[in-house]
Predict the structure.
Amino acid sequence: MSVHVVNPAASGTAAEVSPAPRPATLAGTTLGVLINGKEYSEQVLRRVAAHLTAEHGVREVLFWDKHFPAVPAPESFLEEITARCTVAVAGVGHCGASTTNSVLDCLALEDRGVPSVVMLSDHFAPVGRAIAAQRGLPGIAVAEISHPLGDPDPAKVDAKADAAAGGLAWSLLNLRPAAAPAAPQAAGELVDIPQDAADAFDVLSEMGWTDGLPVIPPTPELVTAAVRAAGRDPEETIALIPPLKGAATVRSIAANAVLAGCRPEYLPVVLAAVEAVADEKYGLVHRQITTHAGAPLIIVNGPIAKRLAVNGSTGVFGPGWRANSTIGRALRLVLQNIGGAIPGVTDMSQHAHPGKYTYCIAEDEDANPWTPLHVERGFGRQQNAVTVVNAEAPHSATDNVTASARQTLTTCASVFATLGSNNLYSQGEPVLALGREHAAGIAAEGWSKLDVKTFIYERARQPWKLVRGRGKSIGPNWPKWLDQAEDDDMVPVVTAPDDLIVVVCGGAGGKSMVIPTAGAQSLSVTREITMPA
């Protein structure tokens, strides 16, 4: 016996990219070098360019430097390279974000008629090829360099560059044919699976549609019920989800929500969360494949939190609440099944964290002595909204002893300003999830939410002499006033007090939670939850 289910995956929407014709020789050519700003990239690419000049007769080398690897090249760079260069190389991709964006840069140049090679470390080369195939060029020219790229000895980095230079030269002159992967069935099509629950789970797992935990088969009846509860057109496209650029329609999102165990009435929240992560500010194109451990934290505000029993109290980040568990899980399955962020294949999160299964909370607005998050962001108290933040796991800030606002927040500031935090190197919008007792005690002393933010801004800092040359010390979001010539100038975790997100949640006790984020390359986004008429 079998049962029909709705396919929750997507085949993507990217148009085919035609590779540019290769020159017969590199002699007399102008080479464009697009440096992505990742550590060691400039050293490697300058070394490779010198090799191509000396050994292959390249006439001129022109350099462009993005200075930041988590973004695609600006249009002006692409236009200049196209106008001035015969061939080009982009790189070096040796993490998730740098790999993705260097691949996108290479595709953009190929599409403009410039024969190009993307240089990737051998560990991330399979990821780059998969992303290129998903974006329409399965035969992308990749020059591999030994991973890891970095070494305290510059001569060893040069040796790796020298070893990779020959393959790069060959790829500028030759195309390596690659068959496009077979396209999966389009999202929304019906698929037969076994009726037996255990057998069905085995089949769905083999299809790659699960997160490793049991799921609910998304039968047409269950998917239709969810779509009706949202009151939306099932064929409406909410977003294109990278890296596959799969079309997330209301129906395909509903299928993933059913898989996750959502009740039909949860779907409007899931749809709003998908809209939020697809906003350019969130940076999903690099968050989907990064080595960073971030996951989309969904914060629910408004009357809908109580109506759906989204927990904001005791155990807020833990198990036991269906709405929290399944809404966050639904978003994860959308990112995996529609976006193509496959763990260990295209999703290269080095360690990940449990929030990549599900990461959804409500703010406890009844315990909040200040303005709730969604009201702070321009919504009315009776409006419903989700805020999505690319966040690490919560870090405990314990203060059971003192009732002093200053001492409690000093404890929190110390947790924020660790030397391993992305926020110390690229700032952004980290989250302070104040426990109800801490929030009440701080407010009782007359502190406003802005006072809390300002205190953390001023105290959560490290001296430049400790920040320089470690972590993610490439910026580019340090405050303008930071004097990098002064060892003792203090580096904050946010560039302004209002960049800190402060919410109130959790149960009774003397603990709050500090939640670091990816940094300013991924900012929080708030979206209203659209309810059915």
